[in-house]
Amino acid sequence: GLVALVVRLFYLTSRVAPHATTPALSKMDLNRAEEDLKTAEKDAEDALNGLNGWAYSSTNRDVELHFNMVKTGNITLKYTKGVTTLPVAPIVAAEIVQCFDTMKMWDKQFDEGRKLQEFEDGKFFTYGKYKAPWPVSQRDFVNVVKTVYDDNGRIRIIATSHPHKDAPEKYPCIRATLMYGAWVFEPTEDAVNDGEDSFPIEGKCKATYITAMNPMGTLPTWLVNQVANDTPMCLAAIADMIQKHPNIVKDMEGRARARLARIYPKKSGRRSRQRREKDGRRREEAS
After folding, report:
1. Is the bond preceding residue 135 a cis peptide, omega within 30 degrees?
2. What global pTM score does this model have?
3. CB–CB of 116/228 below 8 Å?
4. pLDDT-derived band of residue 27, with 50, 70 and 90 as boundaries?
5. Are 93 and 204 in contact (CB under 8 A)?
6. What does the pLDDT look like over 170-207, one tens digit per residue?
7. Which residues of 164-194 are buried (b: 16+ CB within 10 A; e: fewer)?
8. How far apart are CA 102 and CA 126, in angstroms?
């Protein structure tokens, strides 16, 4: 139940219905959001590489658990990282964690959310609210998010808290803070390093999930840190869903193809012979 307090808002994307009356933010506001994202991206990369205090703790259900105890003001919070292998390609894994409907299957605490504003391709603001057991108040988040498609086939979804005028704090929810968070999906084989062909639809990926957050409010720190232990285990829930629902994987593969067509329009529908042959070999090996 209390796992809701370490919510995973930042993977919400354009699958969430946009707010109908969203006014554009000022250029100054957007510049600040960009700066916040740069800081979050650097912190997430340090976490990915195990720098500045990150340490391996244990392995549970094929998920490596890493933690970092960080002093923030007068409290010390536990930041979390989970690492596992998922039986889908990076771009398909990214679609899974960015899909509103799919997210509800592996995060039962999600209550409601919406996309507030997209201010640049792959960059947007989101609002999300999560359930909490009585008498704990629900938590909500307002985040700025960006998705990065690296040339080596890696996909990163970076997020951090940033205010937006379309989502003011509203009682009884307590506005929590995401210092930084990231999904990182890396190919298990060397990428072609050629635009669209860097992101095959079939394959496997190394998946990393990083969260550094403060639920705010008056919850005791020991309880917040105890709950944080379970946060990376959402990776195991995603792996279970992939195994149990091949129809969902097929749907996500279709969405991945559509996204590639938008990102690389000149190559839409013209995948290289090398990539087709490689995907064919993967299918043969899987069977």
Report:
1. yes
2. 0.83
3. no
4. confident
5. no
6. 999 999 999 999 999 999 986 555 567 789 999 999 99
7. bebbeeeeebbbbbbbbbbbbbbbeeebbee
8. 17
